[in-house]
Amino acid sequence: MLALLVVIGVLLLRAAWLEIFQQEWLQKQADKRQLREVVVPAYRGMILDRYGEPMAISSPVESLWCNPQDLLKVREKLRAQYDLTRNVTDVTAGDVEVEAAEAHELAATDFARLESGFRTIEKALNMQEGELLKKLVAAGNKQFLYLGRHLPLEVTQSIKDLGLPEIGSTREYRRYYPLAETAGHVVGMTNVDDEGIEGIEKSQNSLLAGKNGKTRVVRDANGRLVESVVRLEEMQPGQDVYLSIDRRIQYFAYKALKTRVSELGAKAGSVVVLDAHSGEVLAMVNVPSFNPNNRESIAPHLYRNRAVTDRSEPGSTLKPLTIAAALEARVIGSDVEINTSPGRLNFGKYVVKDPRDYGSISLPMLLAKSSNVGASRVALLIDARQHWMFLSRLGFGRAPDAGFSGETHGILTNYAQWGKVDRATHGYGYGLSVSLLQLTRAYGPLAANGLLVPTTIYKAEQVRQPQQVMSPETTRAVLRMMEAVVQKGGTGERAAVEGYRVAGKTGTAYKYINNSYRDDRYLTSFIGIAPASRPRLVVSVQIDEPKVDDSGGRAAAPVFAKVMAESLRLLDIPPDNLPVAKPAVVPVPATEGAT
Fold first, then answer.
1. Are residues 183 and 229 in the same domain?
2. Active site residues per annotation
3. 59 neighbors 176 (Cβ within 8 angstroms)
4. Which residues does the chain have with pLDDT short of 70?
5. What is the residue-wise DSSP string for 529-545?
6. From residue 81, how far is each of 69, 87, 157, 314 by CA, in Å?
7. Which keywords does UniProt give here (predicted)?
8. pTM above 0.85?
9. How far is CA 370 from CA 314, 354, 434, 481, in A?
10. What's the rounded Cα separation, in Å, for the pair 238 and 215?
């Protein structure tokens, strides 16, 4: 009894010592083992089209991780116990043999459960048998290893149900893109860490990403969450971004372009649809494209948004702007005729040629037949400085600043460097370079009474301050001339849209490769405006290296006609070229006595 009292007294003293003198130290030790700071991932904001339809959303997923060293140690320990008990069973007899057999069976069960768990993980993560063990061994001395990223919740739950304490999970979010490859170049994509790396995801990453929060939690010995103790930092969800894109037009434009590029056996193609009054980009598509939902099959060269990053010589699509510059400089009138005989213009070794001698032609005919000689003669009438200033006002030589990453500035050299050949070739679109977005923006003033409205990929709550770059009289005159291109006999008659007056221009630009122009490598294009009587939309189409139909009128104009027609219909823009019905002649019955 005395001994028992002594033991109880010692225990009470020990308890008092721990409670009074070592409480703080023990609490710190417990906190080290149980308290954890957990990152609360921010929900990434959505990317929406102009009507609020989703173009990029986040869905919850989980990532599995482990300490490869600990997991290998557990496996080695169970394997060692299994081997040891098997050896003991082989050399024992009697009751000892029964106990050894039971120990061996228990060790075998534990080891088999672990091996079964390994195989379950391999199946869930689409690994080959034995691949998980190889992955753990290959990790070397690493203390952390991801087993899988962005896995569906049901997959991670099935693995967590195995009860392996050495495997943990982290809640994350994965981006899903409803339009897939249709809007891949515009929306872009995020990497595995949910950071924007292309398109709007990249340019607006700070706004979309938000800010992660932190919470202190208590976990048990198996790493399971017991309770949340305190919120250290508030999670700030990302903000939504509204684009100017109309997903209906975007889808139709991509479908029409992809079909045409395939028919022509072309290298690539691009389409831009612009609302000239608001400066909003309603659609922008490129072929080939990529599906941001399927990262495994994406090649890096497909990421490029050609309509924004690639620059090229515009070719004949610049001719309407050359005439506009001449009208603004008052060196010609809209009713003037240009002598193109004998169908060629010599500048020493350099010769500007037309397909044939058009003789003396009007400005509408100059555009309809796409006369290089005529455009050169008009350009030579303009003072170099005035011509350069006009092109600069339209945005040539500087990035559009529309909200995309990687926007090119194009090339527009200073007028002081222009020789006579440069001035002539600038008239029909050579010697300078632009992106398709820049060229589309430059056509905007022709559809907006001479106002250049800042171009944007974001939904505009109000139109930004436009700049008057040419007179309304000039725009009306040039539009009338451009209508001749789409009429019968013009180079762009395939761009006609039933029920609407269309003003446009075809273009074919040979590529400059290795210090010479290649007559077998070219870009074909068509840019047009409709309705011509009440301009609203500018649609530009570019086809890169078509194998057949080697002109803008044959290769690109049909795509323009389809995209423009569908865009006008979807936006409910009334026709301006319906046939006028003739009044019906109602026969008057003869009255009695009439002769």
1. yes
2. 316
3. yes
4. 29-39, 82, 84-107, 165, 216-232, 579-595
5. EESSSS--EEEEEEEES
6. 18, 10, 29, 77
7. Carboxypeptidase, Hydrolase, Membrane, Protease
8. no
9. 13, 8, 20, 12
10. 19
